[in-house]
Amino acid sequence: MEGLTKPGKASQAPEPTSTTLELLASVEANRHLSQRSLATRLGIAVGLANGYLRRCVRKGWVKMSKAPARRYAYYLTPKGFAEKSRLTAEYLTLSFDFFRNARNECQRAFRAAEARGWRRIVLYGAGELAEIATLAARELDVELVAILAPGRNERELAGLPVVADLEDVGAFDAVLVTDIQTPQQSFDALRARIETGRVLTPPLLHVSREQASGETEAAE
To answer: Which helix (H) or strand (E) covers residue 53, if one does?
Structure first.
């Protein structure tokens, strides 16, 4: 395995908890994991993976030693094991906080819809937030009719049909944006087709609604 090279600017990007945790777990599972394999597993560029490894070595979490055939082996140090345990706890806490906040915001959006007499709701975006929204809806008097997810191949998610276009939905009253990756684009695409007030946006997505005079935030 190639040695550690001096990181460029891309390697010095902020370090997400989940990426560091996955790196430490990967090193623990396979001492002879190549940087290319590690980068693939982390979903980042090889140079950035090198930067993460350098930081872990510098922090004393990972130790590097030479192996035969110009390769290197990586080991978790006692500090590395302790950091992995700490990050695991932190990651689980953050995941729980996200779930709780997302569920609460989806419920507020659904209650706002109920107050307007809107019962049939479409979700725009397939993924974790859409699944959380389906759980939030069970406690309220709303009916989720479909998940709008252009470009996705699934036919069903969380018990709901997945469609590629609003025309495939049938009758509905409002749409809740649950697209985490490109929420602003999804919102803009929706308001080009339906009344803006009927597009609900959880605050956690930080969508700019560019409200017209007298319009209120539907998710509040």
So the answer is: helix 46-58
